[in-house]
Amino acid sequence: MKSIKITVVTLLILVLLNDIYVAYASDDAILRNRIFKIDNFKSEFNQFINKNNNDINIGSGYLYIKRPNMFKFHVIRPIESIVVTDGVEILFYNPSMNIAIKRELFDINNVILEILLNSSSNFWKNFRIFRDKDTFFIFPKNKIKYNNFIINIDKEGVINEFKIFLSKKKYINFVLKNHDYDELSDKLFDLSLPENVIID
Length: 200
Prior knowledge:
The chain is an alpha+beta fold and about 200 residues long.
């Protein structure tokens, strides 16, 4: 009986500490905690461009993430294109044009990639972050280097959508659905290409 009471008390203390953390943690800390809560997932996405308050569907495909820093963004429609990183290099590949570009992962300024993969405190110092429930508004201190970004992510770490602003009234919106949390193979993030592909 005594051990049961101790266990109950311990659980109550943990719940209380969690509530205190949520109450006093910065919006930055809450967002980072949510983003890195899930180790890997696959999701379908629909891509829209919003111009003058009109949403136009411009693409769809799959997003794959495997921690700590593997990422694959595979656009299926209307034209196939792939952005994939194995954690060291990043590859941009357009199969229809038979062209690919390879770079070191964090040598590029890609706000989607860095927010979803980069856990470095030095990186997150580049932004001012504000939260409204499950929606986080991310404003870069250096507007030349990064775009404004909005992400909707729940307490369990499930990303529902994110937006990248191209201007004040124009943004690209990615709506995620059908999340799958089965273990992802490293082969998904292989940077191998057909022999005849031109690499920059």
